[in-house]
UniProtKB/TrEMBL annotation:
Alphabetic keyword roster: Cell membrane, G-protein coupled receptor, Glycoprotein, Membrane, Receptor, Transducer, Transmembrane, Transmembrane helix
GO terms under cellular component: plasma membrane
Membrane topology: Multi-pass membrane protein
G-protein coupled receptors family 1 profile domain residues: 1-150
Full protein name: G-protein coupled receptors family 1 profile domain-containing protein
The keyword Transmembrane helix is assigned to this record: yes
Matching Gene3D superfamilies: Rhodopsin 7-helix transmembrane proteins
InterPro entries assigned to the protein according to its UniProt record, in alphabetical order: GPCR_Rhodpsn, GPCR_Rhodpsn_7TM
GO MF annotations, alphabetized: G protein-coupled adenosine receptor activity
GO BP terms in the entry: G protein-coupled receptor signaling pathway
Matches recorded under Pfam families: 7tm_1 (PF00001)
Amino acid sequence: MASATVYLTALCSPWLLSSFLALVFFLSLLGYLPFKYVYNAVSLSLFTALCVMSAAYAGTGTSLRRSAAKAGRQSARSAANRRKQVKFTKLTLIVTLTFLVSWCPFQILNIVFYVCTIRGMFCTPVISASAVQSVKLLQYASSMANPAIYSFKIPEFRGVIKEKTSLLRARGSTRALKMNQRRDGLELTVES
């Protein structure tokens, strides 16, 4: 029962958090809350997510170390499972680090803008438009990075991608052939 509760909590938490952030944002738009509450809520949620991910990696690392200590008594099958766990842990670590590297500049830019502009501190943010665009491009590149990482690290994923793209190419060439046949048929009717 405890694992079902943990699973349900993990499944519902992102939705509840995003609903809370949307509520805070809309209350700010309607003038019921100052914008600083929106900024604080978003910053707190990002920090909380980072702490949860760090705790999860620490727990995974501890679990892998414990299973490595029992490795002498393991069968070949459980050793293979442990290798898969290690590969998966490395993959998720790479994906998470890629996410952090691509999103941290955006968050730093937001903090600088908030502290200098909204809080009225004694600084003037001099941020060029090209810097903002570069940071946004890096942020969007994060979405593109995951499939690339999965393709390099997971052979099964790479195989499925190749299979799907070849099917799309085959469909595209079949569709193009049918369109050419229709066009050629129309040209023949027009000419005769």
